[in-house]
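Incident log, support desk, overnight shift.

02:14 A customer reports that sequence design results differ from what the structure should imply. Their input is reproduced verbatim below. On-call engineer (initials T.W.) acknowledged and began investigating.
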């Protein structure tokens, strides 16, 4: 069984074979990715997910360092794992001497680190230096195929030209089999197919007449 440790501005996991970690939490933090090459971190709402971006990424150990308030409420992995809150020396001093003989969860502790964060953000918000030679297919808004380096935003899923974000980066699109061209910009993180179906369902509901049954 794997063990996830967090506290004192650090979050890590111990255990073999762990390649996906999904965290639900309370608070707001600045996330500094410490995962090995082959992994990435995305955050939305009160959720954080660590996931592989390569076929054989290795295993997870260090996950991230953080600043702000962070209290994990639930955890999911590709295996079984438990959550363990790590306390630093200053937090131990917050409890009286009698408290030292009971479980750490009963001690008076804080889930904050130095520095206040209003909204959770990623210190590394992009997957950089990706290339279409790896099999990815994108196009411009007019449908012309794009070939070359690109990067992906982990905050809104947008794919743009160039290995890193700059003033010349252009938004890329996906051409579906039916010919429709869909923007990669997707802050909702809902798959394009689901977005289209939801839009069609809303149209059907609007077109459906409101007929009341006669008594």
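02:41 Re-run completed on a clean worker. Output:
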């Amino acid at each position: 069984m794997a063990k996830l440790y967090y506290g004192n501005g650090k979050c890590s996991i111990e255990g073999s074979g762990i390649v996906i970690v999904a965290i639900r939490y309370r608070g707001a933090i600045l996330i500094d990715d410490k995962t090995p090459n082959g992994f990435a971190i995305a955050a939305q709402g009160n959720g954080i997910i660590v996931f592989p971006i390569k076929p054989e990424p290795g295993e997870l150990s260090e996950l991230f360092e953080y600043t702000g308030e962070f209290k994990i409420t639930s955890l999911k992995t590709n295996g079984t794992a438990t959550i363990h809150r790590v306390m630093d020396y200053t937090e131990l001093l917050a409890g009286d001497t009698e408290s030292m003989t009971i479980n750490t969860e009963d001690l008076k502790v804080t889930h904050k680190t130095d520095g206040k964060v209003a909204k959770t953000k990623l210190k590394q918000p992009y997957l950089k230096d990706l290339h279409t030679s790896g099999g990815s297919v994108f196009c411009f808004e007019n449908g012309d195929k794009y070939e070359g380096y690109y990067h992906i935003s982990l905050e809104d899923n947008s794919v743009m030209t160039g290995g890193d974000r700059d003033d010349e980066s252009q938004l890329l699109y996906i051409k579906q089999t039916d010919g429709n061209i869909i923007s990669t910009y997707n802050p909702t993180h809902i798959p394009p197919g689901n977005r289209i179906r939801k839009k069609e369902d809303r149209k059907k509901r609007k077109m459906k007449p409101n007929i009341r049954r006669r008594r």
